[in-house]
Fold:
Amino acid sequence: MSTAYSIRAAALTLAIAVAAFAQQGTPTPLPPQEWTPEAIELFSTLPVQHEGRVKPLSTMAGFVMLKLHGSRSIEVPAAPKDRTLGPMEWMLDTMFYPDAARQYKIFLIQSSEVVDAIGVKHDDKKKRDRYSYAELEPGIERLFQLAQQYNMESQGETKNLTPVQGQIVSLANSVFEYQKITHYLDFARYDFHIEPGSILSEIIPVPRLTAVFARETQLGVTALALERGIEEIEKNLTPEQSEQLRNALPAAVMQLDADARAKAAGEINTLVRDARALSGRAMGLALFPPHGTPEDHPEWFTVADAVDHMSHGDHVDAELAGQLVDLEELVVQRDNPPAFLTQLNKFHDEMVSAATARGEYGKIPLEVSYYNWDFFYRALILYVLAFVAVAFSWMAPAKRWLAYIGTFLLFPPTILLVTGIVYRCIIRERPPVSTLYEVILFVTAVSCIVAIFIELVNRQRVAMSVGALIGAMGLFIAFRFEAQQGVDTMPQLVAVLDTNFWLATHVTTVTMGYAAGLLAAAIAHVYIIGRLFNLKKDDPQFYKNIYRMIYGVICFGLLFSVVGTVLGGIWANDSWGRFWGWDPKENGALMIVLWELAILHGRLAGYVRDLGVAMAATFNAIIVAFSLWGVNLLGVGLHSYGFTSGIMPWLLTFYIIELIVVFLGAVVWYRQRFAAPTPAPVAGGAAAPTRKKQLPAKAHKQ
Structure:
């Protein structure tokens, strides 16, 4: 990893080094225009290959912005009022109006220690604040030096870095990502100054990068002829080749003296060198599908790749050259909205046609629709509303219609949640549990569906309360996880996970076991807290019903945990040649099975009763969380591909909360076990003394 990072840092250093000449002759960009809805739609549905898969450009923009900014919107100054930009608008500003975009406060920095380390002033900033590229620019060189140093020292392992060092490495990656986008169209903005009437003007009538590389062979031959002389070259050529050479050269070459030839050769070499440097910087977006099938040519082209491919040998790829010309023309027409839109439609049609021919465009519109609908955010809002309705139903228990409304309100967000999961399955052609993000969504959905079923059966309003709370909390955690990781949540899978059969059997069943364990713990919280505060103390049947819920959900969870663990062993035997290897993930799954078996056996043998089962179910949440998340932090074993940075504080907080609830259960037990007997009331308000019951004489003898 450190080697890869060194290469990337070197590439960025090169990009910064040539930035000075790249701006020569470039007029200062106008303030960004308001992008029309049609332009945003066309750019959004452009296919791009990013992080190993073909996706909409809007998806890439969303996750890049999330990684840099921590959110999918940004406020930017503008007249007469500030603008709020979404990911696609921000990316278009950054690509087409880089000088304006460099003033946007796009970089979220968690600690001012980071900017101190790179020597950037922050007198008017908070400890956690956002910075623009222009504000960070004085410290960028130092930033990359530190990032490369820390990567080498930690051998590329994030877990070996201190929090500040990790933030410095993360910021360097973000700046590098930003640089790739902001410099992507520099090749189209660069002013290739060619003197009218010169040798170059005869070869390159339009001073564009694509024109240079379309005629690169002719430029090379011309430069060689100018440097060595035509007669010297013709000594090794046949008459036919000599004729072809003279036809390829501008007529003026024959008429120049030695000094003029040397000057013209230098101009040509400088032009080609500058064009090569510019094209090498255009590596941020792989927009150009290669010819052939994805199996034969899996990697798409960036502009840099396309230029190399287009000008390889004597043959010029006319289709690819035309696509590059159309991209250049977009930059030329950026301040002419009608012409820009016409050109964009042409470029969009070309890219869609090329991707469709390879069979890689079919899911693009569906993915754009998935993110436009924003199913999970809508579901989160509705789960919160459902919980509020449930709270009102508890405040007015006599009004049963409030309880019915609360139960009904659980259906729309759950339907939205399941619909979003189904969309992801169709887009990815995978079961819904291939990443940790999807596991959070799936656990939330299963918990809510089971809670709705329980509520429809017993109508105690407990399950619907827990379901609404789990739905809101689960989606909130999913959003936090997505924002913290800042990477595509539909990534390419590691090789061992690249199997739909085992994902659909082992991972799905064991995840349902996780969901049941967490749901049982949530219901157990209601039992313990209710008993602690003596809620419904005159209704023992209420707690008996909650206890039955906990017991039933644990049985449900144990079934799926056992089946899922066994299927996991079979998969491990198929993939790694052994059924069981005491891997941390395997041990975590086994711990869940053993603990839930202990709960059921303890209940059967009479060692634990209602309160004990509730306390044990609560502790089971710690085991489930450890198996689902905790083992990933160890970074060892064959399941270490699931390592997730930055979740340890949240996980420890969850452990502490669950231990506190278990402790509160112990308080309830202690109060119940050692409380003084309650005296029975008698007439007149006095309490009758409690007497020990006397047994018959015969009974004493027994």
Summary: Residues 289 and 354 are 6 Å apart (CA to CA). The beta strands are 47-50, 53-56, 74-76, 83-85, 107-109, 129-131.
